[in-house]
Design a protein that fits this description.
Layout (H helix, E strand, L loop, with lengths): L4 H12 L14 E6 L9 H13 L4 E5 L20 H5 L2 H10 L3 E6 L10 H4 L16 E3 L1 E3 L7 H17 L5 E4 L16 H19 L4 E4 L25 E5 L8 H6 L2 E4 L3 H4 L2 H13 L4 E2 L43 H15 L5 H13 L5 H15 L13 H10 L4 H20 L6 H16 L2 H4 L7
Parallel strand pairs: 1-2, 1-10, 2-3, 3-6, 6-7, 7-8, 8-9, 9-10
Antiparallel strand pairs: 4-5
Bound molecules: zinc ion.
The site of zinc ion has 8 residues, from loops.
Length: about 475
């Protein structure tokens, strides 16, 4: 059940209301929706995922980039999912049914994976160590991952190419009702062996072109999203090599991100579509969502499909170098009160960002004050006040502050502050900043003790939850005489 049934009804109403002149029905983007790391969310079943899809629909979305590699039960390559055996889709293969449900809501589903790297694929070298990519130091790469730790592959090795093709053929055949692929080039490593080197992206492209063509033979209208690294000839952020300069087929849709693929105007002009994807709904706030929607429109993207990643896997290694995370289940979006099986997207603080996405992706020029009014109406109804909306935004900021992909905000997680203390990164100004933030949360909590609406009650409950994280002993971590 959604947390606020009345508010969901209100959402549907506003989506169909054409009366407000500052809220356009369509806006600048043909593709709207989210990028979601399905493979790193093992705890949600089909009913949960249907609800997530319904939420995307309510946000005005028509596109879901669903990262499925590593999270389907490959018959040919069981090593790709062995690490993920608790995943609900490994246990009850439901993605096909989920795609049918998405279609009933007008949402297209693109199956996501990374060629020669990341989740699922990076497990193959556990059985075939000779396929490991080579690092800049000339040695086989060290293990790497997020949730799924393994090795990226060298695409110059024929066996790596054969494995990628057969694994993807199996995924495509299993979920033949999907609307295409999202082929996400790695953002952390390439292969520096003698055969790859400056030609790495040409080698990767050999596979990308072949699997794209196979998809289009079966389904000519399929959307295949690729990175610009095969065509632009530009510097690829982070790798010290240039992109390849191979012929571009305008049937491809291109994906651009702030950290790994910068907009290429001459390619954008020729592509079937071009998508901007950033982390603002997952990790930042409404102001950043607005700025990114404006950026995507300015770069003439046809779509704004940002990340809504949340993780619920149990860390088996020190993710992000943090030993304290080992053996713990990841806390989706930092919302530590949720049961492992409860998706985080209907939680109040995520609704702040989802409403922002719904509004700013439809109209990037919507005044921020107008967004605040809309947010107030939906969360607090007749009891909305500017003060309550500011308090809600303040609380959202607390959860986003310094949150990383794998670590909750320090303000909601004394364990993390303890690790920072041990690492020597807790400076006096930081301690003062955290104390002031907790004081502000205390004030928010106090203001809504006589709550007038579901929204106020929930605001107060979350503020209380944050304060309850901090025992007397934990609060000493923030004292200056330490
Ligand atoms: Zn190589």
């Amino acid at each position: 059940m959604p947390m606020f049934p009345m508010l969901v009804a209100a959402t549907l109403l506003t989506l169909t209301s054409p009366t407000e002149d500052d809220r356009r029905a369509d806006g600048p983007f043909t593709q709207r929706g989210y990028y979601i790391t399905f493979m790193r969310m093992p705890t949600y079943d089909l009913a949960d995922w249907k609800r997530i899809v319904d939420g995307i629909h309510n946000d005005g979305g028509n596109t879901l980039m669903l990262w499925v590699a590593g999270a389907f039960r490959s018959k040919k390559y069981p090593v790709t999912w062995k690490y993920n055996a608790e995943h609900e889709n490994i246990r009850h293969d439901f993605v096909g049914e989920l795609i049918d449900h998405a279609h009933s809501k007008g949402i297209k589903v693109l199956l996501g994976f990374t060629p020669f790297g990341y989740d699922g694929v990076n497990q193959y070298p556990l059985e075939h160590p000779e396929l490991k990519a080579i690092g800049k130091d000339g040695k086989p790469v060290a293990p790497f991952g997020i949730g799924c730790w393994g090795y990226n592959l060298c695409p110059s090795k024929p066996e790596s190419q054969r494995f990628m093709l057969e694994y993807l053929r199996e995924m495509n055949a299993r979920y033949s009702n999907a609307d295409g692929l999202m082929i996400e080039s790695s953002d952390y490593a390439i292969c520096h062996c003698e055969d790859c080197g400056e030609h790495f992206f040409e080698k990767e492209f050999a596979f990308v072109r072949r699997i794209s063509e196979e998809v289009w033979v079966k389904k000519p209208e399929a959307t295949v999203v690729v990175y610009p690294h095969y065509f632009s000839g530009a510097d690829v952020p982070g790798f010290g090599v240039k992109a390849a300069k191979l012929p571009f087929d305008p049937r491809w849709t291109l994906m651009f991100t702030p950290h790994s693929a910068h907009p290429e105007p001459s390619l954008i002009e020729r592509a079937k579509g071009s998508l901007w994807s950033d982390d603002s709904p997952a990790r930042k706030g409404p102001q950043e969502i607005r700025a990114n929607a404006q950026h995507a429109r300015g770069a003439k993207m046809t779509g704004y499909v940002p990340s809504l990643e949340a993780f619920t896997f149990v860390a088996t290694v020190a993710e992000e170098g943090q030993e304290w995370l080992k053996g713990r289940r990841q806390v989706p979006l930092g919302f530590g009160w949720l049961d492992p099986g409860e998706p985080p997207y209907d939680a109040l603080l995520m609704r702040v960002n989802r409403i922002a996405y719904r509004e700013f992706s439809r109209n990037p020029d919507l005044a921020f004050d107008r967004y605040k009014e809309i947010l107030g109406e939906e969360v607090f109804g007749a009891f909305a006040t500017p003060r309550a909306v500011d308090d809600l935004l303040e609380l959202q900021t607390v959860f986003a502050a310094e949150r990383t992909w794998c670590q909750p905000s320090p303000l909601t997680c004394p364990e993390r502050v303890r690790a920072m203390q041990a690492a020597g990164t807790m400076t006096p100004p930081k301690r003062g900043e955290y104390r002031a933030a907790l004081d502000r949360i205390h004030a928010v909590e106090a203001r809504y003790r006589e709550s007038k609406s579901d929204g106020e009650r929930e605001l107060r409950r979350i503020a209380r939850w944050v304060l309850d994280r901090w025992s007397v002993e934990d609060r000493k971590l923030l004292e200056d005489d330490r």
